[in-house]
């Protein structure tokens, strides 16, 4: 209703002015008609409307990007440039860290208003294009031939009633060149990262007019190679910068004057290493109750050797490997001072957390070939036949993390049988493991943990004795998990268009009837760890001859049997079982000690064949009706569209069979489809032209009815008003509605396995250190309610309390991704108000201000399990919809260590209909051209300056269905700068073949911790680390026209090597530039 009120206000202001001029319309009719003839402007179809019109009177906010800009920008891809436009700043570009998402590596998906690529409709010449990610409509714009692009028109307001329901946030329309004749060759070499990785591309476009220019044919071809970029290749990540905890606060004193975390270089983590570390069972001394930096009660009990609380990384208790030997780890010159698990140290041994936790390809290795042919044939002067065919073959190779696991080492485990598999990432072995270094095996067998008495208010607990604890835990990143996507995209378009002149009272009729077919075939191959085989291979022993064999081979050598540890094939194994016969002993203790044959034995592979298919038939007709009062004829457009979307993904079950693997295992994506039949209409009514109250005014409206085979019928509409009082200024306002049906991916995706490194929002220390004290208070109440539901009681307020909740997650938590068949369509409203200034007293200057509001109800969103866990407890009450996606243990057994209860053990990451999402902001664009010869009488060249920016007033997510007033504000947080702008200054030098361009991409600081929260806990971090600081990247390009047919362009991107704030640590934020200073050179040759 708020948007409707805003629109009524906007239209009332304009309509009130217009109404006064009604008596003058008839008198002005003849004069207006004569003026119209004298100032006739070519009318065209612009994106946002299907009615031919003067582009100046386009009814919706419009950003236009020319072919010239795309070719000279210096950006590596089209989407890389589009993402510099603030309205598109969170678009998915190939260099985003998307590799960890199955089948998403290397895709280029526009995302208007940061509302998601699924709410941005991408068209090619006004027609739909098949989506690339499975079961979605999101278009990979890198598959659109770049040399064929004439311009990109971006409607930054809702356009669902004109183009389709998924145009919630707007439309990108790629307009291709028509009747191209000649030969154009474009070649480019570019650095992708200042570490030396690069890309190479060559593109060729040829066209010819035949039969007295009645027939035009063209052919396009492109070949491209891109190197892989890993986090380890990015120089500023190699430094290991990040915040390290050094103090914790008690519940009674959130501020104790000691800074809780400081910024350090050369951080290391010993939590998980490539091929492992071993930590002996240990116990921290209980600290005084007024010192929360350690734990006031003993943590490790001997009742369970798998208790996560027994294995906090600690000096003197953690071993690393040098070759085949083990030694006590070097913790460097500073160790994290908070909690029982001292997993971060400065200097010494360990992995760089900025690299080891960013093992996905930040830019995948790609090899791409793209081809398109097409033509236009004038059958008659008024009828044109058009056709095009496209084929794209893209192969992407990318890293998607490591397999991981914990191995519990104890001689009390499974004597005389195969070793137990505790979970998809937890295994067991004994100290007789043949690869376990002898000194480490001896240390495990002799290990004891201290027993402490209770702490007092001012003194730590005194040691009262020791307890034998002959067990340890091995924790490691294991096999790499590479992924290959081999994608073929086909798209075919055929149709007729033309003009029919006048038919009765309808004048200047234009029509178009076309059919589009698109198909994407993607073979995804993912490699990872065979859990069962790894369990057998790593549990190696020496046989009677002293040879190292798998324990299962030794136990079955003389006719014995052992228990199968594969839950998919329960029963027993013997010496003839394939997994036993083929077992190759695997040394897991130390990087580089693994034999290739053992690695091959434990590898698993998953192959999925995915299909997206689209059929689209579209017919439109437009024309002009009567001109009642001399303001111009009424415009009308009618159309109908039929569309079918189909998807499937097979092979997951077939390729894995009964294999028990640490992969994205699960069911196949069964064939799914839907059809939609749509009819639409558009009407534009000129209200006045050259009246004494203004130059021009127009009221227009659009309507679309859609009938989905899955969700039934719905209708949407749009209303627009344009008013130009004088030639210097114009006003535009619009109101649009939209109904977006869930995609096939959102409703039909099968549940597949995935893994999450979990930071428990209910951990007492996390609540105590949470910057937002309101949400921290909510967590205390809500976490207690969750625990009570499971029959558990913890103190969530005081980390020094004996019954504080102190979870220890040994490795990643296994969970599931999947669709939700119960989703309902989301509904949205959008409102825009625009002002266009072209003042005559400032020649060659223009300014456009576009205010926008978008509200989406029943918004469909998929949040991570981490976010769901936080949403579950952050609000004033439990968020049931979020809590229901998580499973926690409810074991209340005295033999189970306290900190192993209430752990997250399963989750489902799936889309649900949340309450709503609001976004509100102001886009601004200015252009100014300054010719020194005309203005100063001296030829110092021509300067062209443009600024394109966006002010994000608010972006709110209402993700609590039970409490519609509970929201999360994203504006001015990470990824969502309050203001972002791109400034482009081009100097056409007096030496005309030479042009220099400077592009500055600037954004305001984004809050990491909000200042109101910092006031309540002012020692949580140094004040200068509360936000990211303002960020600016500077690009420079030089273009030299060697001769009429040859152009050279050289570019340096991020010339001053700007990088994101070091205190952000390992996370790469795509709105900053992580790749440093890099160079490119391109050549454009047009021989004829």
From TrEMBL:
<keyword id="KW-0472">Membrane</keyword>
<keyword id="KW-0798">TonB box</keyword>
<dbReference type="Pfam" id="PF07715">
    <property type="entry name" value="Plug"/>
</dbReference>
<keyword id="KW-0998">Cell outer membrane</keyword>
<protein>
    <submittedName>
        <fullName>Outer membrane receptor protein involved in Fe transport</fullName>
    </submittedName>
</protein>
<dbReference type="Pfam" id="PF00593">
    <property type="entry name" value="TonB_dep_Rec_b-barrel"/>
</dbReference>
<feature type="domain" description="TonB-dependent receptor-like beta-barrel">
    <location>
        <begin position="493"/>
        <end position="1054"/>
    </location>
</feature>
<dbReference type="InterPro" id="IPR012910">
    <property type="entry name" value="Plug_dom"/>
</dbReference>
<dbReference type="InterPro" id="IPR000531">
    <property type="entry name" value="Beta-barrel_TonB"/>
</dbReference>
<feature type="domain" description="TonB-dependent receptor plug">
    <location>
        <begin position="57"/>
        <end position="171"/>
    </location>
</feature>
<comment type="similarity">
    <text>Belongs to the TonB-dependent receptor family.</text>
</comment>
<dbReference type="InterPro" id="IPR036942">
    <property type="entry name" value="Beta-barrel_TonB_sf"/>
</dbReference>
<feature type="signal peptide">
    <location>
        <begin position="1"/>
        <end position="26"/>
    </location>
</feature>
<dbReference type="GO" id="GO:0009279">
    <property type="term" value="C:cell outer membrane"/>
</dbReference>
<keyword id="KW-0675">Receptor</keyword>
<keyword id="KW-0732">Signal</keyword>
<dbReference type="InterPro" id="IPR037066">
    <property type="entry name" value="Plug_dom_sf"/>
</dbReference>
């Amino acid at each position: 209703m708020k948007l409707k009120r805003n629109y009524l206000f906007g239209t009332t202001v304009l309509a009130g002015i217009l109404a006064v001029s009604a008596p003058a319309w008839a008198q002005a009719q003849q004069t207006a008609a004569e003026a119209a003839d004298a100032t006739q402007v070519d009318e065209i179809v612009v994106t946002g409307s299907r009615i031919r019109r003067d582009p100046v009177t386009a009814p919706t906010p419009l950003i236009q990007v020319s072919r010239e800009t795309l070719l000279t920008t210096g950006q590596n891809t089209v989407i890389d440039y589009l993402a510099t436009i603030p309205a598109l700043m969170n678009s998915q570009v190939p260099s985003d860290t998307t590799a960890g998402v199955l089948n998403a590596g290397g895709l280029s998906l526009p995302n208007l208003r940061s509302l998601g690529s699924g709410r941005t409709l991408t068209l090619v010449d006004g027609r739909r294009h098949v989506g690339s990610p499975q079961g979605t409509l999101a278009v990979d714009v890198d598959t659109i031939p770049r040399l064929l692009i004439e311009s990109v028109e971006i409607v930054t307001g809702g356009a669902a009633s004109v183009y389709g329901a998924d145009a919630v946030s707007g439309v990108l329309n790629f307009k291709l060149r028509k009747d191209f004749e000649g030969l154009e060759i474009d070649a480019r070499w570019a650095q992708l990262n200042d570490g030396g990785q690069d890309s190479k591309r060559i593109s060729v476009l040829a066209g010819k007019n035949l039969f007295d220019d009645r027939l035009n044919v063209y052919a396009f071809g492109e070949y491209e190679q891109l190197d892989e970029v890993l986090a380890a290749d990015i120089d500023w990540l190699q430094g290991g910068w990040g915040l390290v905890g050094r103090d914790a606060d008690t519940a009674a004193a959130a501020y104790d004057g000691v800074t809780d975390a400081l910024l350090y270089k050369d951080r290391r983590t010993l939590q998980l290493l490539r091929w492992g570390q071993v930590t002996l069972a240990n116990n921290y001394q209980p600290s005084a109750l007024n010192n929360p930096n350690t734990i006031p009660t003993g943590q490790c009990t001997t009742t369970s050797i798998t208790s996560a609380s027994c294995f906090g990384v600690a000096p003197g208790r953690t071993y690393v490997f040098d070759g085949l030997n083990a030694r006590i780890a070097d913790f460097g010159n500073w160790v994290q001072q908070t909690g029982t698990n001292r997993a971060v140290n400065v200097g010494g041994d360990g992995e760089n957390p900025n690299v080891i936790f960013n093992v996905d390809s930040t830019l995948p290795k790609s090899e791409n070939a793209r081809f398109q042919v097409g033509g236009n044939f004038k059958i008659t002067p008024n009828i044109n036949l058009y056709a095009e065919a496209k084929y794209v073959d893209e192969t992407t190779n990318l890293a998607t993390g490591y397999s991981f696991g914990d191995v519990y080492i104890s001689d009390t485990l499974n004597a005389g049988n195969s070793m137990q598999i505790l979970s998809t990432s937890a295994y067991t072995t004994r100290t007789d493991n043949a690869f376990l270094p002898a000194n480490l095996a001896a240390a495990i067998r002799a290990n004891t943990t201290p027993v402490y008495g209770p702490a007092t208010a001012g003194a730590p607990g005194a040691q009262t004795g020791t307890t034998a604890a002959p067990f340890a835990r091995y924790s490691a990143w294991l096999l790499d998990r590479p992924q290959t996507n081999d994608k073929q995209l086909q798209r075919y378009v055929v149709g007729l268009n033309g003009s029919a002149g006048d038919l009765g009272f309808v004048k200047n009729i234009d029509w178009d009837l076309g059919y589009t077919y698109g198909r994407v075939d993607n073979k995804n191959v993912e490699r990872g760890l065979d859990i069962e085989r790894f369990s057998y291979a790593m549990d190696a022993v020496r046989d009677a001859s002293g040879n190292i064999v798998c324990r299962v081979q030794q136990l079955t050598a003389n006719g014995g049997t052992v228990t199968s540890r594969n839950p998919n094939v329960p029963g027993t194994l013997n010496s003839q079982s394939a997994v036993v016969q083929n077992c190759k002993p695997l040394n897991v203790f130390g990087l580089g000690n693994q034999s290739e044959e053992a690695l091959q034995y434990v590898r698993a592979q998953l192959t999925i064949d995915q299909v997206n298919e689209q059929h689209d038939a579209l017919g439109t007709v437009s024309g002009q009706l009567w001109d009642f009062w001399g303001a111009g004829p009424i415009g009308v457009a009618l159309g109908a569209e039929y569309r079918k979307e189909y998807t499937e993904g097979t092979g997951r079950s077939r390729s894995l069979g009964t294999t028990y693997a640490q992969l994205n295992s699960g069911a196949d994506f069964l064939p799914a489809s839907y059809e939609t039949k749509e009819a639409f209409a558009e009407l534009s009514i000129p209200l006045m032209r050259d009246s004494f109250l203004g130059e021009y005014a127009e009221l227009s409206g659009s309507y679309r009815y859609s009938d989905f085979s899955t969700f039934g019928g719905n209708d949407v509409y749009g209303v627009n008003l344009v008013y130009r009082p004088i030639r210097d200024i114009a006003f535009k306002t619009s109101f649009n509605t939209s109904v977006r049906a869930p995609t096939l991916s959102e409703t039909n995706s099968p549940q597949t396995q995935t893994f999450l490194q979990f930071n428990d929002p209910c951990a007492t220390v996390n609540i105590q250190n949470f910057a937002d004290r309101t949400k921290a208070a909510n967590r205390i109440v809500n976490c207690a309610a969750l625990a009570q539901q499971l029959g558990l009681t913890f103190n969530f307020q005081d980390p020094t309390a004996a019954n504080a909740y102190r979870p220890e997650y040994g490795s990643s938590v296994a969970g599931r991704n999947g669709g939700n068949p119960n989703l309902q369509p989301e509904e949205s409203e959008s409102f825009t108000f625009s002002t266009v200034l072209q003042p005559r007293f400032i020649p060659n200057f223009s300014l456009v201000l576009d205010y926008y509001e978008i509200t989406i109800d029943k918004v469909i969103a998929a949040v991570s399990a981490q976010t769901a866990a936080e949403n579950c407890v952050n609000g004033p009450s439990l968020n049931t919809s979020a809590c229901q996606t998580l499973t926690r243990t409810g074991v209340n057994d005295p033999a189970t260590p306290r900190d192993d209860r209430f752990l997250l053990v399963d989750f489902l990451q799936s889309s649900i209909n949340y309450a709503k999402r609001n976004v509100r902001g102001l886009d601004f664009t200015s252009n100014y051209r300054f010719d020194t010869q005309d203005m100063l009488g001296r030829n110092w060249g021509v300067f062209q300056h443009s600024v394109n920016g966006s002010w994000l007033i608010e972006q709110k997510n209402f993700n609590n269905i039970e409490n519609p007033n509970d929201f999360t504000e994203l504006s001015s947080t990470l990824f969502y700068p309050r203001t972002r702008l791109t400034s482009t200054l081009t100097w056409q030098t007096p030496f005309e073949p030479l042009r220099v361009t400077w592009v500055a991409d600037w954004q305001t600081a984004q809050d990491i911790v909000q200042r109101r929260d910092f006031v309540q806990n002012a020692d949580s971090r140094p004040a200068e680390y509360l936000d990211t600081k303002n960020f600016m990247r500077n690009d420079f390009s030089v273009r030299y026209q060697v001769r009429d047919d040859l152009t050279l362009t050289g570019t340096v991107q991020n010339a001053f090597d700007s990088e994101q704030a070091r205190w952000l640590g390992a996370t790469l934020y795509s709105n900053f530039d992580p790749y440093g200073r890099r160079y490119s050179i391109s050549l454009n040759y047009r021989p004829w």
